[in-house]
Design goal:
The complex is a heterodimer of chains A (about 775) and B (about 100). Chain A has about 775 residues and is mostly beta strands. Chain A has two domains: about 100 residues, Immunoglobulin-like, CATH 2.60.40; about 625 residues, Maltoporin, Chain A (Beta Barrel). Chain A has a 22-stranded antiparallel beta barrel. In chain A, strand 26 and strand 27 form a beta hairpin. The two termini of chain A are about 50 Å apart. In chain B, the strands form two sheets. In chain B, strands 2-3-7 form a three-stranded antiparallel beta sheet, with no helix packed on it. A two-stranded antiparallel sheet of chain B has the order 5-6. In chain B, a hairpin with a 2-residue loop joins strand 5 and strand 6. Classes of the chains: A mainly beta (about 775), B mainly beta (about 100). Strand 42 of chain A pairs antiparallel with strand 4 of chain B, so a sheet runs across the interface.
Amino acid sequence: MRNLLIAVFVILTILSTAHAQRFSVSGYLKDATSGEALIGANVMADSTATGTTANHYGFYSLSLSKGYHLLKFSYIGYTSQRIALVVSRDTSLNIMLEPGVNMKGIEVKADAVNTSTQSSRMGTVELRLSQIKKLPSLLGEADLLKAVQLLPGVQSGNEGTSGFYVRGGGPDQNLILLDGVPVYNANHLFGFFSVFNNDAINHVELVKGGFPARYGGRLSSVLDISMKEGNMKKLKITGTLGLIASKLTIEGPIIKDKTSFIVSGRRTYIDYLAQPLMQMESRNYSSETGYYFSDINAKVNHIFSTKDRIFLSVYSGNDKFYEIQDTRDYLYEGEIYKESGQSKLGWGNLTSALRWTHQYNGKLFGNATLTYSDYKFYVKQDLLNFEINDTGVIQSQYNLDYYSGIRDYSAKYDLDFIPHPDHYLKSGISLTRHIFKPGASVTSSKTGTDPTTEEKAGTENIPVNEVTYYAEDDFRLTDKLKINGGMHFSGFLLKEKSYFSAEPRISARYLLTPALSLKASYSYMSQYVHLLTNSNIGLPTDLWVPATASVPPMKSSQVSLGLSLDLPRDFQFTFETYYKTMKNVIEYKEGASFMSSYTNWESKVESGKGWGYGAEFFLQKKTGDLTGWLGYTWAHSDRKFPFINDGKTFPYKFDRRHDISFVLNYQIDPHWDVSLTWVYGTGTAITMPTVEYLVINDLNWIFPVQSYDERNSYRTAPYHRLDIGFNNVKDKKWGQRTWSFGLYNAYNRKNPFYYQIVQDNTGKKALQRTALFPIIPSVSYTFRIGK
Amino acid sequence: MRITYLLSFVMLFIAGCSEYESIEDFPIAKPTLVANSLFQADSAFKVHVSRSLSVLDNAEILPITDARVVIFKDGLPVDTINQADESQYYVSGLLPDKVISIA
C-alpha cells in the first residue's frame, strides 16, 4: 500500500513539473443567493476549448497558459457568466452564479464541458432536485428514490415502494451515500417512502456502470447524495403541509458568508390520524397505539479561510410502532388479574460526517472525513401482571429485547489534483470499522419471589476492519479520446479470514463529431456485505451480515458500450448496452425461512451466480419550459445456484424484459406548471403453485398440498401507471407559497401486487391478482419565508 | 394486537382491490400419480395412491382405488396389491425390515 501511494505521488509530481509553465485559475462556484456549492458546474476556457467541472464542494481548477483567456462559468438553471482574464500567475477566482429566471423565451442552460457526450464516464445520471420536487408523487410526498426508479436501467420493486434494482442487481447492491456516509436502510414505512427529505438535499447522482475508482463496496450502483450546506446569505424558512406528513426547514447564516446552518425535520401524523380508529378498538380499556416516522437533517459549516472549511452533517431517521397499555382488570377462572405493558418496534439510521476541506494550492484540493453511522432494528416488550387470589397478590413480569443492526466508524482522506487541463486525478484512502450485530435477544421473566430468569439468544457482534485505497485519472489523450481510468483496492479483515481485492476501472469516450461520442467501460467490483432478505422490499427485518470464511464476498464484472448524442433544441440522447456477471450472490436455500435467520444464517444460504444484460435508451431535455425524459430499457437478469431450482438457471425476481418511463414537466406560465409520469413494465417473475396433490401426515390424516413449479417461471401482468401533478406558485409579501395537486395512478390501473389461487363467486378456482394502490389524489401546501 | 388495526389504517391507502386474471398463460400441469406411505417398523406397508391435479382444476382430488401397487425389496418385487381397502389404502402383509428415521 505504501509503495502505491509513493508511486501515485511520484506520477503527480512529474505531471505537475511537466506543466510547470502553466498557471492555475481556481476557486469556488456558488449560488449567488444562498452561497450553496454548485456541484458539477462547468468552467470553459474559450481560447483553449478546454474546461472542467466543480467538485462536490464547488471547487474548480483550470491550468492555463500565460496570456489572455475568456472563461465561461455555467450551470443548468443559472445565468452564465463570462470573465476575461489575463493569466500571468496562479489566480484565485470565486464565482457566484445567479439562478436563472425560467420565463418563457429565456433558455437557461449550461455549456457542454461535461455533458454526457463530452464526459468520459458512462452510466451516470444527475438528477435535479428542482425537477424531482415537481414530479407527482404518492400522497404528495415527492420522493427522491421514486424519481431514481424512473431512470432507464433501474427497476422498481413492488408497487409503491422505493426499493430499486439496477442492471439486474439485488437491493443490497446499491451503495447509497448521504454526504459520503453509507445509508443501510433507506426506507420508511416498509418502503413506501424513502428516508431522504428533498428540502435538505443539494445534489444527486446515480452511477449504474463505468464506476470511477473512487467508488467501491457494492456491485450494482452508487447513489451519491449531497446535503445542502445552508444559506450563507440570509435566513430562509420553508415548510410543507401534506396529507400524511409535514416538514420544516430552517437555514441561514450564523456569521454571514462565513458560517451557515440548515436544519430540516419531517414527521408523519399517521398515529394522530389513526387515533379515532384505535380508540374505537380499545374502548374497554385505556391504551395508546401508534406509528410514525420522522427525520432530521442538520448541517453546519464554517469557512475558516479561503482555503479551509469544516462541515458537520447529521441525519437521524426513525420508524416506530408502539403500543402502551394501561392497567386493565380481567377475571379468569375466578381469579382477578391486572395487566399492563408496552411494546415497541422500530428501526432507524443515524449518520454523521465531520469533514475538513483544504485547498493546498490552485491545483490540489483535499478533504479529510470522519464518519459514523448506525442502523438499528429493535423490538421491545414489557409486560406486568398481578394475580389477586386468596393468598394475596402475585406479581409477574416479562421483558423481551431484540436488537440487530450495523455500526460503522470510518476515517478517510481524498485528494483532487488538477495539474493540467488534460488531467484530473483523484486519490484517497479509507479505514472503516464495521460492527455487525446480526441479531440478539434477551428475555427475562420473574414470578412472585422467584429469582429472575434470563435467556439470551442470537449471535455475538462481529467486528470487521475494511480498508480501501483508490487512484484515478480523468485524462484527455487526444482531442477525441478521453479516458477515466483507475484502480480500487480493498481489504476486508475478518478475524478468521481476510479478503483482498484489486479492482480495475476504465471508461472512455471517443468523439466521432463534436456532438456524438462513442463510449465503452469496464468495472470490476467487490462487495463484502450481504443482505439477508426474503422480502426484497427493504423491510427492517432484513439483516446485513458480513462475508465470512464460508460465505465469500460478492464480485462483479461489467462491460458497457454506448453512444451519446447532443441534439438540437437541447435534447440529449444516450444509448448504452451492458453485460454484467456476478458471483457469490446469496439466496436462502429452498425452504429456508428468514425467521430466526440471525441464528446460524450461514447454513441457510447458498452462494451462486448472476447475470444481467440489456440495452438502455435515454432521451432527455434538461432546459426550457418543457423538460423531462423518455427512457426505455430492454433487460435480462438471471440467477443460478447449485441446489436451488435443481441447479437450473432461473430469472431473477425483478427480471423485467421491457421498461418504459416517460417524465414530463411543462411550465405553463410563471405561476403554473404541470408534470406527468407514465411508466410501463412487462411482468416480473414470480413462483406460483401449479399442482395440488394429497399427502399423509404421521397421524394418518390425508390433506391436499400445493407444489411449486420452477422458480420464477410465471410472469405477472404488465405494470403501468400514470401520475399527474400541478403546482401553483405565488409570490407573497413574506415569501412564496405553492399549492401542489396530484393524482397517483390517474387511470386507476390495478397493477399486480400479489397473486393467489382462490375460488371465485361461482365457486370455481381462479387466479386472482390483487392490486395495492387505486387512484389516489393528493394536495400539499408549501411555503417559503424569505425571498 | 392493535398494531394490526393501525396497519389496517395505514393500508387505508392500500385499498387492495382484486380482480381475476386470465389463466391463458398459466402453466397447466398434467396429472401424475402420487403414492404416499408412512413406514413404521411394527406396521404393515400401507400405501395411498391418488392423482395430482392442476391448482386451477375444479375437480376434487380422489384416491385411486384400482391401481397396481408393487413392493420391491432389493430391486425385486415381493408383493403386489391390486385393490385398496375401504379406508382407501393399499395394505400389504409385509413389515419393513428396518426403518431409518430421517430428520
